[in-house]
Design brief:
This protein is α/β, with parallel strands linked by helices. It has 26 helices and 25 strands. The radius of gyration is 45 Å and the shape is elongated. The N terminus is likely disordered. InterPro entries: BCAA_transport, Leu-bd, Peripla_BP_I.
Length: 852
């Protein structure tokens, strides 16, 4: 590079003042020495475009009587470098190290450094300084506590809340308390440590001048500084000021204003006396950089006599030689540890007449804007993100319910575990009953002596057809549970939790997992009641309850192997209703011996995952074959078979004597209508025997079905108010026979009442006032021993689980009923309704099996 003649060097100075981007390291900055008689005016002209945009100071020779006074003018409580800079959007640099040294050096009448009295005196002085430092203004406090510490600890506290709030089973207030505690302690600790200087005082142990000894108390160290020689204390003061500037530009691992500083500091010196205070300060400043090899983030522009421009640390380079090539010069000096001098000689600089230097602060403010953008992303962004995630989490958990997940449009899990179930979860008839159950729960919880049952059902059921009986079945189950809970008068109260497994129990496994998690948190939970349909979701739930060791009592689920987990009967699974095998055997005997059928055809739902219909169809086939009835090929309708019309036509092809209906209730009336109007079935009365699922739809269409001339309809009943003829009924059945709940599905209503009763009785038998409440183990023990002399009369018949591995009810009441215009008693009933009732003599009931 050749020597330029005369140039405007302000652009080059601007290049030195501009800080590299975030990913670049800070480098050594030059000391620019201006020589010649017009040096002060050249310095003023060179630096004029920049003084309003960055931390700057002007020192004139002779204004300060000592180096310490000069350092105080620059970095003291009211120092020039610590003044706010308009438009920088950042707090000014702070000088806790330099101010500590200045304070210690300025203590008059310093005691002997080794005297205990001197130490105590300095402890008092240091304490007084901490209590009321000269720079402890509100602005300073706001700067350190809010502008610096809060930007770090509010996000950290928010993250603590975020992480701890993830597990929804935690008490809701704990994450907020811990997050607030972390935030307050972090802001307070960092703010105090920063404003008092403790955050930086470790530097005194790492620097070579008047080094602070390990474990040396700060008061002892201050006393030693007060007694130090002038040369050492001056050097330490300058070094401390340089370190404070480094800290102001340090790239911390936490959000700190230093990341946003886009311009270095500018120090302007006017030196006339080469042996004066300002000249000594310049030498100490250069020594500070040379001593550590670490860059000091300040560009010095000084007008000096010729003799001070001589090479000192290294050879000085004319600034005019690198005009326009500052970036190249900086790359060449990137690894240099020693400070560098650049010299502007007489005539090297000349501003272009009438052309002011255009310094663009926006380019340097961009760094501050990026810093604040990151801060906004970290602080409000994190908080907003937390709120969004929390709201999403609340939505995912249906308004923040602790044991509920939103799956699709359904709220799956325990909807009233922590508080009454919110509105809008279920249809009005179900919601009204849940609200009444929650009101009963409040009384139970208030008594403090209560056990909890989980009522497991498909309460968000979507009624897809007029004769879809699932909705009234759920209403009936809730009605039974609410009435039992409300009328209970024992000292041990009952709390009922509502567990929604989704439409068609499709989320039964997930709902059971949530119940199991609740059981880990709530020792009051002693069992689960419901599980009312033999479908895949209920099978998954039974498996989960077995793994969690939670007693589960099914109501109207009749599939034979529902309680089989792996290859063994689950010891935790019980049922109050008869199995498919028992009702299929009675149906087959009735078809053969009462109806005189020699041939039969089985009509079933073609849905592959409907355990009930597939199992009942198989049991029909087995039982009919055992009775000597010829069974034709099964006829399926629905998802994997023909439509109903096609299925009826196929069923009629063989001319069967009886149609065994193993399908679901919602298609039953359509099946009967197709059968009634079909020409393929020929003349004569067609006899239909249906499974237990149709009881509700039969009640709704009784007159229509009874009026059919070509079809005669019979069905199995698991529990019905009409079955109680000639037997002393229970109080609940008495109310039903007197007209209570006329629109309820009797089997769901009565069997749910008994299921709740049997689990509660087990808990009540284990309950001893004054002792611990019954556990799930206590309840399981009592349930397993509900047999023989311990059996009792339920509203669905005698409750007796026998002594086998399977907990199917022994000789449970089941009947076959004919559909008439008005309700009639069963044509045949097997199994006692009362333990004192004489055994039935009907040959259809002889050795009627309980299970396969």
């Amino acid at each position: 590079m050749g020597h330029a003649v005369t140039a405007d060097l302000r652009g080059d100075l601007a290049a030195f003042l501009r800080r590299p981007w975030f990913w670049r390291r800070d480098q050594q900055l030059p000391v620019v020495l201006v020589t010649g008689d017009d040096g002060p005016s050249v310095v003023a002209e060179l630096t004029a475009p920049f003084v309003d945009h960055l931390p700057t100071a002007l020192v004139r020779d002779g204004e300060q009587g000592s180096v310490l006074a000069l350092v105080s003018a620059l970095a003291g409580p009211r120092g020039q470098l610590g003044r706010p800079v308009g438009g920088s959007f950042l707090p000014p640099p702070r000088f806790p190290l330099a101010q500590f040294v200045l304070w210690a050096a300025g203590q008059h009448h310093a005691p002997e450094p080794q005297s205990h009295e001197g130490y105590q005196d300095f402890r008092r002085r240091l304490r007084d300084r901490r209590r009321g430092p000269a720079d402890a203004s509100l602005r300073l406090v706001a700067d350190f506590f809010i502008g610096r510490a809060a930007l770090t600890w509010v996000p950290i506290g928010t993250i603590v809340v975020w992480l701890l709030a993830g597990p929804t089973d935690l008490v809701g207030v704990i994450p907020w308390v811990l997050g607030a505690l972390v935030t307050v302690l972090g802001i307070g600790g960092q703010g105090l440590a920063t404003i008092r200087g403790w955050f930086f005082y470790g530097w005194f142990r790492r620097q070579p001048v008047l080094r602070r000894n390990p474990w040396e108390r700060l008061a002892w160290y201050a006393l030693r500084l007060a007694n130090a020689g002038p040369e050492e204390i001056e050097r330490l003061a300058v070094n401390a000021m340089c370190e404070d500037l480094r800290q102001a530009y340090q790239k911390w691992r936490i959000p700190w204003p230093s990341w946003g500083r886009g311009l270095y500091c500018l120090l302007r010196l006017q030196i006339a006396d080469p042996h004066g205070v300002t000249a000594r300060f310049l030498r100490l400043l250069e020594d500070a950089a040379a001593l550590t090899g670490r860059p000091v983030p300040v560009v010095v522009v000084a007008s000096v006599p010729e003799e001070l421009a001589d090479p000192r640390p290294i050879a000085a380079t004319p600034l005019a030689d690198i005009t326009g090539h500052v970036a190249t010069w900086r790359r060449e000096h990137r690894g240099r540890r020693m400070p560098v001098r650049l010299v502007i000689g007489p005539g090297d600089h000349a501003a272009h007449p009438g052309v002011p230097h255009r310094f663009r602060p926006l380019a340097h403010q961009a760094r501050a804007w990026i810093y604040w953008a990151v801060v906004l992303a970290v602080l409000p962004g994190l908080i907003i993100g937390f709120v969004v995630v929390n709201l999403s989490d609340r939505a995912a958990h249906c308004g923040g319910l602790p044991y509920v997940d939103r799956v699709g449009g359904e709220c799956v899990g325990v909807v009233n575990a922590a508080e009454p179930a919110p509105d809008g979860l279920f249809a009005k008839p179900i919601a009204d009953l849940v609200r009444r159950i929650d009101a009963n729960n409040a009384y139970a919880v208030e008594s403090e002596q209560y056990v909890t049952l989980a009522l497991f059902g498909e309460y968000s059921v979507r009624q897809t057809a007029q004769d879809d009986t699932r909705f009234p079945s759920m209403v009936s189950e809730l009605t039974a549970a609410e009435e039992y809970q409300r009328t209970l008068q024992n000292p041990l109260r009952l709390r009922v939790l509502i567990v929604n497994a989704g439409d068609n129990f499709v989320h039964g496994g997930r709902a059971a997992d949530l119940v199991a998690r609740l059981a880990d948190d709530d020792p009051h939970l002693v069992g689960v009641v419901g599980l009312g349909r033999s479908v895949g979701g209920v099978e998954q739930a039974v498996d989960r309850f077995d793994a969690a060791k939670i007693p589960a009592m099914t109501t109207t689920a009749t599939a034979d192997d529902l309680g089989i987990v792996g290859d063994r009967p689950s010891p935790y699974f019980f049922r109050v209703g008869p199995t498919n095998f028992r009702e299929a055997t009675l149906s087959a005997r009735f078809a053969r011996r009462t109806l005189g059928a020699d041939t039969a055809v089985i009509v079933q739902d073609g849905t592959a995952d409907d355990t009930y219909t597939n199992n009942l169809a198989d049991d029909f086939a087995t039982a009919l074959t055992a009775e000597g009835v010829e069974v034709g090929a099964p006829v399926a309708y629905g998802a994997s078979g023909d439509g109903m019309s096609g299925a009826v036509a196929r069923a009629c092809d063989g001319g069967a004597d009886v149609f065994m209906y193993a399908g679901r209730a919602r298609e039953f009336v359509g099946f009967l209508k197709s059968l009634e109007g079909s020409s393929a079935c020929g003349a004569g009365v067609l006899k239909v025997v249906a499974g237990d699922d149709v009881i509700r739809v039969v009640a709704d269409h009784r007159a229509e079905i009874a009026a059919m001339t070509q079809t005669e309809v019979y069905h199995v009943a698991l529990a019905s108010r009409e079955m109680w003829v000639g037997v002393n009924p229970t109080g609940f059945v008495t109310s039903l026979r007197n007209g209570a709940h006329p629109d309820a599905a009797d089997d769901n209503l009565i069997l749910t009442y008994d299921a709740v009763d049997v689990v509660y009785r087990a808990a009540d038998r284990a309950y001893r006032p004054g002792d611990d409440l019954p556990s799930r183990g206590d309840v399981l023990y009592r349930l397993a021993r509900t047999s023989g002399p311990s059996a009792w009369n339920g509203s669905s018949g005698v409750i007796d689980f026998g002594h086998g591995e399977r907990h199917d009810p022994v000789n449970k009441a089941v009947g076959v009923m004919k559909v008439e215009e008005r309700p009639t008693p069963p044509l045949v009933r097997c199994g006692p309704l009362d333990a004192d009732e004489r055994p039935a003599r009907d040959p259809l009931c002889e050795k009627l099996p309980d299970a396969p």
